Amino acid sequence: MNRIGSRRLLSIALSATVIANAGIAHAGSPKAKFAYVASCGDDTVVQFKVKSNGLLKPNSPASVGAGACPGGLATVTLNGKRFLYATNDNDETVSQYSIASNGTLSPLTPATINLSGVTDGAAFISADPAAAFVYVTTFDKEVVQLKVNGDGTLSFNTPATVTANGGSSVAAVADQSGRFLYVTQFGSNLVLQYKIGADGTLTPNTSASIGSGGNPRNLAITPSGAFVYVPNLNDGTISQYKTNADGTLSPNSPATFDLPTGAGVTQVVINQKGKLAYATDEDLSVVYQFKINSNGTLAANSPSSVHIATGVGLMTLDGGGKFGYVDDDGSLLYQFKVTSKGTMKPIPNSSNSTAAGSFNAQILLVPGGR
User: Where are the alpha helices (DSSP H) in the chain?
Assistant: First the structure.
């Protein structure tokens, strides 16, 4: 089985994206027009239009080809033009696309950048807020450092990677200032802490890491940058951190939010206002719903969770916080309306789910293309 295919070991989760990524933190935009799903099973990116009521409608064509087993997605905007990137784990490439005004993707030239010479694998991808630099985690010990060129293509920064000993990099998220990057590392149960230089290169902060729970996955940071949340797959907790002025993290109090027995939490997503949070649980097939207190700690919303009938993979929110989308790590994407209390309910007059590729992974929303 490929690395992305092993749910327990690697547990695909978003990124989001930050922003500039969706599945990794507070993904999306206030006026999302298009949605994309990485479909590992059929080596495509599935394309949707977002209707005004939040329901997704297949675009035409319904999908475009990617590399072998796409899993992570990110988008950047340069001079009014939008671009999308998809990490392909099984052939160690990143697919590069332009986004047309109708939301369809077209491969750039070259269509991919090959990472095989510098690392092993391609997991998730994250862009800095200025859309100048991109970082790829690898499920290995490297984080790949890339520059965004004027035509939207990617090229290697110098050096091409930074290496962290002791574990494998899972997911990365930058703060909104573009000065700091945080990377979860399973095996060592750490969150790596980096400074982002003016040239986009990463240097370890002081200290270089902070401990997490067992097998940390796809983390999130509040829009203010004040708080960070890390889901820990193996011990059913979410680590809660405060950010310091120097970009390092400190445990909040309490240091963790403990989930029900048997939980296997993989991703945290935060809304754009920084008041609501959600976490996906692949083992209990639920999405947990939280309010964020003024001190950054999580409090269970009511109801505390939403059950997904066919399983839970990744999720994202639209930037306006009105709609949520959850994939089942299989072939379905569930569509929800977010109530005024921050809880998710099926969108009225819908079947609640729509087909979305095969063995789906990250979901990404964008406002539009050009």
Answer: 7-10
Per-residue pLDDT of 246-279, as tens digits, reads 999 999 999 999 999 999 999 999 999 999 999 9
d(CA 293, CA 254): 12
Choose among 21, 26, 58, 74: nearest CA to 320: 26
Listed by start position, the domains of the chain span: 7-366
What's 140's DSSP letter?
Answer: S
Calpha distance 62→272 (Å, rounded): 28
pTM of the complete model: 0.92
DSSP state string for 136-173: EE-SSSEEEEEEE-TTS-EEEEEEEEEE-TTSEEEEEE
Q: According to the model, what pLDDT value does residue 121 have?
A: 83
CATH placement of domain 7-366: 2.130.10.10
Query: What's the whole-number mean pLDDT along residues 324-352?
Result: 92
- Look at residues 360, 364, 332 and name the one whose alpha carbon lies nearest to residue 43: 360
| Cα-based angle 173, 333, 73 (whole degrees, multiple of 5) | 30
